[in-house]
Protein 1
Amino acid sequence: MPGTPALHVEARLSVPLDLVSVCSLLYRAVPGSGLEPWLVATRRELEAETVTDLDVLHGFSGRLLYYMEEPVMAFRPLSAERAGATYDDLDAFLASLPPEMFRAMAIHAIERVHRDLGVIIPPPTGPDPDAWRRFVGPALTTATVDEVIPLLIDPSLLRERTIRLYRTIWADHYAAAFTDHLPVLGRAATLAKRSVDQGVSMAFSALTGHRLPATLVADLGRVKRVVFCPSAHIGEFVSYIVYPPDLVVFFSAPNLVDRVGTGELGDPAAGDNDGNAGALASIGNDRDLLEALRALADPTRLRIVDLLGSGEQYAQEIVGQLGIAQSAASRHLAQLERAGLVTVRPSRGVKYYAVDPARFGQVSGQLLRRGAAVDEPGP
């Protein structure tokens, strides 16, 4: 979209962010969940107090588990000064925060759930339990309101249990596993750097094995930086943190390294030095590029892109401005959607369309790279 700044996309290994991922995976790792056996076995080994903390602290901020992201994102793990942060750095930071900060983070997490649900419930200004019940109610999943309200009325309890959970998971269950997997995590982070210059959608597909979800596409307008972080235990599970202006996407480090080792993707590190992009970045590029170019090679579809450049519109608006039959407009929109150039957001029976600036950036980048690879003519 003209005037829209390009997203900054990178890959890096982060201990604090990896810990958030592991905690959320352990929360979900009940028998039959389909998650990695290590996660299920580790959850089974947790002491009763730790299981309670895990379920309560993840269970009052919606299905996306917003609260447990808050303390780590407050640490600013993606800032330059925290690039090599250890767990001890995170722990010292959390220990320095007053209890009121933990309540503020909990309130912010619940407000994020309210935003997702489209409801407006102001947070209480005092200790009235009924007011807290109304505020917390829409965000509850596995926690009960009677478990959560005491933590919000007395945030020293919330602070104590949050820090205790992080410390217990790290020291008793994950530190040794993290050390064992560190070579694979580091290798995966290095490999991932070869694909992030292709843009969010292509990198997401190459690294996670999944198409970029529509929910994330809708959130890209609020994001300025996307960071792909390797995880030792995520497997095929899709996990991410949307915390504007940042988006963190976790991907399986072992899966990526295994695919490179078997030659399925090729090894970018073993490639030549002629300026070509690595194998990770090139998966499906030619096919996807051709589909995008075909979608744009039509005056009506270009007009649709221009219309959507001013903002999201629903189908009937587009039909009215184009002056063509609705069936024809639907065919054009469908082709743009298949090419990933346009996103669709259903709402109350109406489809809203918008351009995907990240996808346009990928197409532009692929064309520019091809142009740069052409030898300049001699004198």
Protein 2
Amino acid sequence: MTELNPRTDRDPPGGAGFPAGTLTVCPVAGIPEIRPGDDLSAVLAEVLSTPGADGGRVPWITDGDVLVVTQKIVSKAEGQIVPLDPEDPDAKRRLIESESTRILRRRGDLLITETHHGFVCANAGIDLSNVEAGTAALLPVDPDRSARRIREALGHHLGTDIAVVISDTFGRTWRNGATDIAIGIAGIAGVIDLRGTPDATGRILEATEVCIADEVAGAADLVMGKDRSIPVAVVRGVDPVWLRRGSVSDEIIRDPSGDLFR
């Protein structure tokens, strides 16, 4: 983890030749299989630190870093794993409907639903991958709260002031392929509002709002992947302006009154 030394303008991450403002994205290996009831924050504190000379732990994660944690291990730790017969399509349909406030579209076995959190996604975000056969993973009940708890616990364990993003893989209605987005955040903005500020040419921006949390989640997924058993990554070098109290629920979920498609 030596590449994750604190950044300075003269010694940027990744070595000489990279300008100030460079981001470093590092996969975090060594996460054991997480099971319901595990203390996820304690597990994370262990892998985000090294043994110290005095017998304690010395964190290698530093103030201002963003810890990105996949939804799956959060759901496992919080007991959001339920039995499901994979051979019974009606059981899966009933589970999806129970996790949804409404069904927006149906096509065969695929349902596009709105979850209790306000997410519009396939099959209410229920996941059958990387869980034991005969079970399904549900989304955390309150992902923002989950992110806050992880951030607070790691602050206690490691004495660091970091941000936390809980990520999940979503498809896009008008684009092929999937990407990771933020479903819960703590200590980082969801959206940065650039309206009223000048662009590079001095023209005042009128409509630009950037979903920083989703961009960080997508960047982290590039080193985590879907088949590498790497459910955690650290993003270093984000703009300190982004590091503030944030909420997916309050900032990112679009109010139906402003939605042209529902």
Protein 3
Amino acid sequence: MTEPSDSRVGLYIDFDNIVISRYQQLHGRNAFQRDGIRNFDRSSADADAGVAARLNAATVDFNAIIDFAASFGTLVVNRAYADWSVPVNASYQRQLMSRAVDLTQLFTTTTRGTKNGADIRLAVDVVEDLFRLPDLTHIIIVAGDSDYIALAQKSKRLGRFVVGIGVAGSTSTSLAAACDEFEDYDSLPGIVKVTASAPAPVAAAAAEKSPSGRKAPEPAVEQLQTPPIKARLLTTVPMFSHTEDSQFDEPEPAEDTDPQVIATELLVRALKIGHAKGDADEWLNTGAVKTQMRRMDPSFNEKPLGFRSFTDFLSSRSDVAELDEDGPQRLIRLRPEANAGY
């Protein structure tokens, strides 16, 4: 149950903005359009392997964004705006729906897509919510577009704390200045650092001619592929309300779904967020840590995992977290070696 004193947060995601910005951050200016990502279906049998590899490397971790948003309070509005019939957008649906994100459909009416439609629809919804939900304390806008400057300023004038999240290199400095707090996507706890690649050499290779006058052969697929990225395990379905297997309409990804492992990763993510808001070595109150874990995954419960109390659960994770029970309050902090391993 939400406590009356809790901060109440509205999260609004300009989906195309963040996905396109991330792809072009890693693969060069206009790479999204050049590679035809909007209509690219990586599951197709004839999909270009090089483009698929670049797209996989640029996958946006929306779980990390939602986790960070939940650190400000209870998420009472959680929306993402896009045309969800587009293959690249549809591939995120399971991840977003598992976190209770409201997928707002924007229908494409022009050849340029839904870019302006997302800006206007998101801004209209935020303004409506500001007046319809007077207890809304925080507005979090996931975008870097300067079109949202007026929205951020209006939200602040109406007494809300405004947070922006955007991709470095594609974020308006004026938008960042208009917010109370702004975070780069790469700086969010849990985001795996990825090195930007050089622009794809396919076009240049095709233009080169051999001495005989014929086109030089295209480079092998291996030359175009981005090195595999180690991504953290995503909690895509509730795992803590029970310990038995559940049946879902869609097949589960072939990942480790051991509830104990997922609980440990949830704890580490919560501690990283807590440390990100203060000193890296700062001791955190265990009650605040549990609250953060429940905000990130409301289905978390230590009892189905075999622990009588949350303190017992924390004590069992001594390899990743250090517990201090000597003072009047129980305190916890992440071990440095665990921070590097997750």
